Known about the structure:
Elements: H1 5-15, E1 33-38, H2 42-53, E2 57-63, H3 67-81, E3 86-88, H4 91-98, E4 102-105, H5 112-121, E5 125-128, H6 136-149, E6 153-155, H7 163-173, E7 180-189, E8 197-198, H8 208-212, H9 238-241, H10 243-255, E9 262-268, E10 281-282, E11 289-295, E12 300-307, E13 319-325, E14 328-332, E15 338-342, E16 350-352, H11 364-377, H12 385-404, E17 408-411, E18 416-417, H13 421-425
Parallel strand pairs: 1-2, 1-4, 2-3, 4-5, 5-6, 7-12
Antiparallel strand pairs: 7-13, 8-10, 9-11, 9-17, 11-12, 13-14, 14-15, 15-16, 17-18
Helix pairs in contact: 2-3, 5-6, 6-12, 7-10, 10-12
The protein binds nicotinamide-adenine-dinucleotide.
Amino acid sequence: MAINRRTFLRSSVASGLAFAAPGLLRAGSGRKYRTALIGSGWWGMNITGEAIQSGQCKIVALCDVDQRQLDPAAAKVERLTGDAPKKYRDYRELLEKEKPDIAIVATPDHWHPLATIAAVKAGAHVYVEKPIGHTIIEGRAMVNAARAAGRVVQVGTHRRISPHNVSGMKFLQEGKAGKIGMVRAFVLYGGGPEQPQPNEEPPAGLDWDMWCGPGPLRPYNRKMHPKGFRQFLDYGNGTLGDWGVHWVDQILWIMEEEWPRTVYSSGGRPIKGPPVFTAKEQTTDAPDHLLTTYQFEDFTAYWEHRQFAGNPAEKAENVGCYFYGTKGTFHMGWKRGWTFYPVSRGQKEIHEEPQLNEPDQQNIRGLWVDFLDAIETGRRPVCDIELIHRSTNMSLLGMLSFKLGRSVRWDGQNERIIGDPDANKLLRREYREPWVYPKV
Ligand SMILES: NC(=O)c1ccc[n+]([C@@H]2O[C@H](COP(=O)([O-])OP(=O)(O)OC[C@H]3O[C@@H](n4cnc5c(N)ncnc54)[C@H](O)[C@@H]3O)[C@@H](O)[C@H]2O)c1
């Protein structure tokens, strides 16, 4: 579907606040929300910082399976607020005892579905991190659980509320880059061959069995935790599942699409080398580069990532999306905002700088305010779970095609792969006992 002024207006009205600048929204009841964090690592604490900053949330409890993450996080909350949050090792106990109004889920990806579903069932509204899950059917189960419980579930794809992304979306949807025939989304970082890291006994204070949870119980290795799970396919989905969700989400959002018709990936580890997984040592196992083609009805999109060679050849930025239109090329970036490079000679480039928050150059703040406003007014939030389920599916289908080694035709309505039973088996996975794969 080509975007035009009419659809642009329709979508902005539908989303309610597509152009409201973060900070202009006010969640107005003055109510204090009893808020709990599940997964008190790097990003969870960034979100918690914004929850505190909103002035409407009291951080009553934190949960982490690693005491080395939990203790400093609790000390920081106490320093910032004067209140000591309760500390938990098991999110089920936290939900039962604290009954929070809001739960933030910022664990590694393979835990998002069970923690989110348990939280909405316990009556909490949830702010869950991207990608929403590890396999596609988990995502559908999360959407259904949110709807059944009547809770607001916001996903942390904060680019949907970031000022330059919003103005860039408007620019493109008004047709200023012409008709878009192709989109290229990419994350290009440097890197090189990977050396295996020895396996170790889990450090004191870390419940490694619980960290692995529904995923396979691999030997503990410091490459995986903290933060490293992204490049281990038992727990994450590589760069496309991690960084990539933000950019494939921009494609669906700006082009007003719900899903692609076909998906094909190719890639591998020619530079990092074959994955190593022995009783003694491990490397990561996600591809060091990947090309994924998404065929939509009226345009083609593709994803490209590399973890070698960096990107010195392109001047715009090493992450983002290029939208290629009949009137020029539009780069939607991150720290460099957006730039439009017109086709016509003599026409000047147009550029907009970003407005980002520290730490880590993000727009969680706007998304948090939107979340509270959605709770208070009973509307869907900007990054509603169903929307970002579809964006997560873009990433997961790309990785599914990579694992399968062939293209897939996607029936987005029924969330099935057409005519390929083996591919459909990869829409879910076996959970390790006692964890049970969520029911749709
Ligand atoms: N939206 C964004 O821009 C953005 C940026 C960074 C990270 N993220 C997302 O945030 C999530 C966390 O990433 P991170 O980099 O902070 O990782 P991290 O490793 O720093 O933190 C994750 C924490 O979860 C804990 N954990 C694991 N299993 C748990 C369980 N069952 N219960 C409670 N805690 C558990 C770990 O011990 C760890 O402390 C990921 O899903 C990631 O994709 C989003």
